[in-house]
Amino acid sequence: MLNYLRNHAYDTADTRPNTDDIPQRTEQAGGSAAATEPTPSATPTTFKLQYLVEEGKGTLQGNDQSGVTSIEMDAAEKQTVTITAVAADGYTFYKWSDGLTTATRVDSATKDISVTAMFNDARVQINLDQGESTIKQGESLTINASVTLGGKSYDNSGVQWSVNDDLMQNGASYTFTPNATGDYRIKAGLEVNGTYTSQELMVHVQAPATTVSITGVSSMPAGSTTTLQANVSNPSGDTTWTCAQKPQWSATGDNVQFSADTVGSYTVRAANNGQYAELVINVTEPLSDPTVTPEPSDSGDQFPFFPFGDGD
Q: Are 169 and 189 in contact (CB under 8 A)?
């Protein structure tokens, strides 16, 4: 029997369990929890960021948005966000409600943020009460300026006045008194909330008007001579004299001699710079020379009269 078992033992399968991996399976089954279970991570920190604009005065650009009036987002801690405030027409950026004065802001998220972009009204306009004008040299022209901001009356004391780009003064009005002829460009300008506006007008200055008058007699006897004087203000060149009734007569200067041999009415004209004055002189009959007429004498001899009386 023993020999039989020895000779046939290989024909019997070994059904015992495999124990070679028992340590490994034991380690896997009983391993530490740290090696088999994930460690829970901390909840990410986020902040709420809110950006607004004053209604109707501008828009925002940033966070892949533009032309909007508000931007809101949740930002991770220390996330960088760039937002730009864009002013609407007629307005200029002033500041953010937290005091930042640049239109573009870069925020690092470390806390909740809620800010509003603020704007200034820049709809400034100047109006003048005078238009293009023509005056004489020596005359004056006063111009008044009114200012509106956003359609409402605004302080006009800061208006700057210039003449042909030369600064004259600041104030609500300006009085222009030219001392020479020519064309002058008068400009009124003002800057409000970063916006500059101006109005201007042209003033044409002409030479002062020439006036002429004549000093002289109104009548004279024929054959006599009289002196006539021209009184000319703001003259241009010489004063010339003519007389329609004496076409052959003319003269130049402020003082001239005039005579007429024939009785009649004579109109003398003095002219300067297109202006003239006339004087009518009536020429009368010439004066006759005085004649001494002897008084008539008694006829006959003249004898002395002696009274009667006793005589020797």
A: no
Q: Dump the DSSP string for 126-165.
A: EEES--SEEEETT--EEEEEEEEETTEEE--TT-EEEETT
The two three-digit tokens of residue 290, written as one number: 């005085």
> Distance between CA 135 and CA 211 in Å, rounded?
17
Task: Flag whether pLDDT at 299 surpasses 70.
Answer: no
More confidently predicted of 43 and 185: 185
Predicted pLDDT of residue 288? 76
Q: How far apart are CA 271 and CA 210, in angstroms?
A: 10
Say whether 177 sits in a helix, a strand or coil. Answer: coil
Radius of gyration of the chain (CA): 59
| Burial of 61 per CB tally in 10 Å (0-12, 13-18, 19+) | middle
- d(CA 222, CA 74) in angstroms, rounded, equals 117
Q: What is residue 25's three-state secondary structure?
A: helix
Cα distance between residue 137 and residue 205, in whole Å: 6
Q: Is residue 233 within 8 Å of 210, Cβ to Cβ? A: yes
* CA atoms of 119 and 87, how far apart (whole Å): 7
For residue 45, give the DSSP letter: P
- Rounded Cα distance, 159 and 144, in Å: 10
Query: In the structure, how many helices (H) and strands (E) does the chain have?
Result: 3, 25
d(CA 101, CA 119): 11
